[in-house]
Amino acid sequence: MNNAPAVMKQVSDKSSFAKDMESMGIPHPVSGIVDEAEDIGYPLMVKPKCAGGGRLNRVVQDESELNTVLEELPVMDPTLELDDIMIQEFLSGFPASVSLIANGKCSVPIAVNEQLIGVPWLSSLPFSYCGNITPYRTPYTSQMYEISEKLAENFGLVGSNGVDFLLTDKGPFVIELNARFQGSLDSVEIATGLNLFDMHVKSFNGILPTGTPDILKYAMRVVMYADRAVSINEPICEKIKDMSIADIPTAGYNALPDDPLTSILCSGGTREDVMEKTLIMRSTLKDIFQ
To answer: Which N-terminal residues, if any, form the signal peptide (predicted)?
Structure first.
């Protein structure tokens, strides 16, 4: 049960999605093909049109750096060709997201989440997705909800969906739309006490939540990436089996540097509380994986 394949294809193509945002009048980074670099202006974000997770995203300051990145990306992902790569104006801001449930006609926002992008103690990659903290308190909440509901209606979204934003000094800019379950699922469920999968299923029968739920606590899910080659064996599995983690690796998994190892789940009364718990657990896991 998910959005129609045509809808998912439309919104997952970042180049096509940029044109949709322009036609709808929704703030979005100016985007284009590589040949339009000079017209858009440096610095630029270079990224694949249809890849997620931010692992291949790079910022370039001039034409020389752009050419270097264009040579490097196909080496990192041999399936990429020049036509698969796009550029965007580089914006500074704070990454956040909205989780919502839709039924094809209307939608209900569930939460605003802080996005953890390129966190140095989790990943060496500058724009890799590293997790979420729910909730994120911002004066832009109402505006973000309004934009997200507009997108859900425009694309006829159904089920659990997410909208990624960059909060700038000019307001929220939409970065992308995830017409599927998002990495924030765990933190949203823990923070609200709700079952998102249950709401996802009910939405296909037109049933939506009665309103945006109350936040009960802070919750954090972070992706822990390997900082070197790691081989998961049975003793490691035994040590981590009862820990508060998701995406649990199995014996025989061989992670290369920058491959994901597991996801840490923590909750508490404040952001500082969950961050402290997460750092402690990350230190413990790092010792185990070594």
So the answer is: none
